[in-house]
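$ fold --in a.seq
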Amino acid sequence: MKPAAFDYHAPSSAEETVALLAELGEGAKILAGGQSLIPMLALRLAAFDHLVDIGRIAGLAGIEVAADAVTVGAGTIQVRIEADAELAAAVPLLSRATPWIGHFQIRNRGTLGGSLAHADPAAEYPAVALAMDAELETLSPRGRRRIAAADFFTGFWSTALEGDEMLVSVRFPRWTGRCGFAVREFARRHGDFAVAGAAVAVGLDADDRVERCGIALIGMGSAPVRASRAEAVLTGEKTPLDGAEIGAMAVAHLDGIPSDTHGPAEYRRQVGAAMVARAWTDAMSEAVNA
């Protein structure tokens, strides 16, 4: 199939983009890397009167590493994130999640901001943003604002972005001290969307107690999910901790787990628990030996 007819726009700046969005209204859609949007248009799963291509706006791409955080432009392509050694040292979870995204050809076009704004609950970057308490900076004709990742994802393929607003950058806090990070997921074939997965960050104090942790789940709800209840229980606990128990705890209170062609909801719950257990074990091993 082919997409429904649309008008194409290629603004030269972020300011021009949001002005255009305000002018065009609800019939406009931003096109970033296009790795999710174009297939949806081709299959007629979505249709828009206007596509606003931001792929050539140079100011939207880039990686800035500071002492307390790393800021990544929304237009930064995924292979650049994957290959940046300084970013990998500063925010390991973001770097380690990237190779799980599709195939190299997809990552060569897909962008950080495109993935986050698409808000697919089976995608890796939304889980990383949640686990790391990222802040997403947006721009509209009214100016800029920052949205916590916990408030950004509002439902299936939906976010807190207003119709005349675009994502311009993402700020990931740097964790220091005895920390460990891991991503685990299960898919039918390499490059497929995950049946379930987990992104885990953990920090230990000098007494081997969990000082802080982030556990985000992939493919386990209608929106990206964070296992906040499990994190609250784990914080302050002394290692070693049983990974299987943590995995079960992380998925115990989840509602609305998808049931689809990959399997029923209970199957996905079991897979999700196993992925949390493995990611927690990996992250904890790294933290203990840091």
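$ fold --in b.seq
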Amino acid sequence: MDKKLFNVSGEWDYDLSNDILFFKIKNREYSHSIELKNLVIDIDRDNYIVGLQIFNASKFFNVDKIVLNGTKDWKLEINTEQNTAEIRLVFNVLYRNKLIEKNPILIQPFNKEMPDSRIICTA
């Protein structure tokens, strides 16, 4: 079966007081979530990943909260294949008038069957 490709727009939000960074694919609603250490992955009724929440985001990315609050362009890429999800999050922050790019990669196996897909989501 071929991998399904989604190239969609998204939205993000950062809760400075609680240090939570949130990314969501527009126009897709989640039906349930999977919790991992400091991450919550939102999944829709068709078992596609449609959102990501990162708790203690400033520690996770090793940047100050105020820096995360100034997040600029971002891109979320999700690849699911053989019940493993690879999540790449690329975003820019402004720090002391310098643009810094962060590019963490998370790979997580799932017990639940998920469709093979590739999602590219940008603001």
